[in-house]
Amino acid sequence: MRAFQNRFEKYDLVIADEMGYISFDKEGSELLFAHLSLRAGRKSTIITTNLSFERWGEIFQDPVMTAAMIDRLTHQSYIVNMNGGSYRMKETKEWLQKQQLT
């Protein structure tokens, strides 16, 4: 476990894409919290999600730990809210239009 933590701490950037797509059990939530806490304020982390922070309790199921994780992740962070249409849906519509022309 400690070897993984050491390796995880060394990465300049960690990206967690689609956070919340799948819920975490208690142990998984605690491990993620521990690993992200090690990086907080020292290394870069990017997290993408389609859930607002208010809904993160649904992912991690522990309100105290969820609040602590959000606190650490948002401290001295850039938050980019990208509301809008789905880029994949736009590409699919364009692809379908091209298919109809051929």
UniProtKB/TrEMBL annotation:
<protein>
    <submittedName>
        <fullName>DNA replication protein</fullName>
    </submittedName>
</protein>
<dbReference type="Pfam" id="PF01695">
    <property type="entry name" value="IstB_IS21"/>
</dbReference>
<feature type="domain" description="IstB-like ATP-binding">
    <location>
        <begin position="7"/>
        <end position="93"/>
    </location>
</feature>
<dbReference type="InterPro" id="IPR027417">
    <property type="entry name" value="P-loop_NTPase"/>
</dbReference>
<dbReference type="GO" id="GO:0005524">
    <property type="term" value="F:ATP binding"/>
</dbReference>
<dbReference type="InterPro" id="IPR002611">
    <property type="entry name" value="IstB_ATP-bd"/>
</dbReference>
